């Protein structure tokens, strides 16, 4: 579906995360009955306003389309993978995003892309939870309604989480307590990947050692195993 077909939302790769009855990573909502922000544009419609990947700080083209290239709903191996290459606006020759449920409770969000060395890539997600950076900013503890989840970067080892206000400027309607969780990466190689995992509870980084890591193509091969 083209980005513009979804209420002009430039949101290819956008994901939500909910567990324990709490919406942790959320959507900023529709722009109906609201006034656009600076430049006549809605922040909520922008690529930056979604839980997705941005290349070279650019916006996704409104004509970009994504395709579902793999899917599995097997209890032990649930995942979906999209090809979002068009959404990079030419910044990447290939971009795939996969989201998987591992072990019934751990969510993995994995991006793989091919682009020129030093291409800037920004991973973004929004929440209204209370945030506490973990050791070395390799994880973030999120707390809301008496519940906690832990978000960790599994790969690459050289990046760290940044936490900031998700303040939406007037005249768009604000979301009280909104915060933004980001990762910024400028790899020196052509082929790259980024792997983020989310577990319920307050977890040590060592707890994520149990998360199986494999390339997106291997997710498909594993799904075909008897």
Give the topology, please.
Layout: E1 17-19, E2 22-25, E3 53-55, E4 67-74, E5 77-83, E6 92-102, E7 106-115, E8 121-127, E9 130-133, E10 139-144, E11 147-155, E12 162-165, E13 179-185, E14 191-200, H1 216-223
Antiparallel strand pairs: 1-2, 3-8, 4-5, 5-6, 6-7, 7-14, 8-13, 9-10, 10-11, 11-14, 12-13
Outline of this structure?
By secondary structure, the chain is mainly beta. The chain has one helix at 216-223; strands at residues 17-19, 22-25, 53-55, 67-74, 77-83, 92-102, 106-115, 121-127, 130-133, 139-144, 147-155, 162-165, 179-185, 191-200.
List keywords for this structure.
226 residues; mainly beta; Beta-galactosidase, Chain A, domain 5; four-stranded antiparallel sheet; 1 helix; 14 strands; 4% helix
Structure description:
4% of the residues lie in helices and 41% in strands. It is mainly beta and 226 residues long. The protein has one domain: Beta-galactosidase, Chain A, domain 5, CATH 2.70.98. The strands form three sheets. The chain has an eight-stranded antiparallel beta sheet, covered by helices on one side. It is globular. The protein starts with 16 loop residues before the first strand and ends with a helix. The mean pLDDT is 90.
């Amino acid at each position: 579906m083209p980005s513009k077909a979804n209420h002009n939302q430039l949101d290819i790769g956008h994901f939500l995360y909910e567990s324990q009855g709490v919406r942790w990573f959320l959507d900023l909502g529709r722009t109906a009955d609201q006034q656009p922000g600076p430049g006549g544009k809605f922040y909520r419609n922008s690529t930056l306003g979604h839980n997705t990947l941005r290349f070279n700080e650019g916006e996704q083209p409104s004509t970009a389309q994504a395709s579902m290239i793999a899917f599995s709903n097997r209890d032990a191996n649930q995942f979906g993978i999209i090809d979002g290459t068009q959404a990079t606006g030419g910044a990447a020759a290939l971009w795939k995003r996969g989201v998987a449920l591992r072990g019934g409770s751990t969510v993995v969000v994995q991006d793989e892309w091919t682009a020129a060395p030093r291409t800037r890539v920004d991973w973004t997600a929004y929440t209204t939870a209370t945030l506490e950076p973990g050791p070395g900013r390799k994880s973030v503890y999120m707390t809301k309604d008496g519940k906690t989840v832990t978000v960790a970067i599994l790969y690459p080892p050289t990046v760290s989480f940044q936490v900031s206000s998700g303040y939406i400027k007037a005249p768009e309607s604000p979301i009280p307590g909104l915060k933004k969780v980001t990762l910024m990466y400028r790899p020196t190689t052509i082929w790259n990947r980024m792997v983020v995992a989310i577990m319920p509870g307050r977890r040590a980084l060592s707890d994520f050692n149990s998360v199986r890591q494999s390339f997106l193509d291997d997710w498909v091969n594993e799904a075909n195993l008897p």
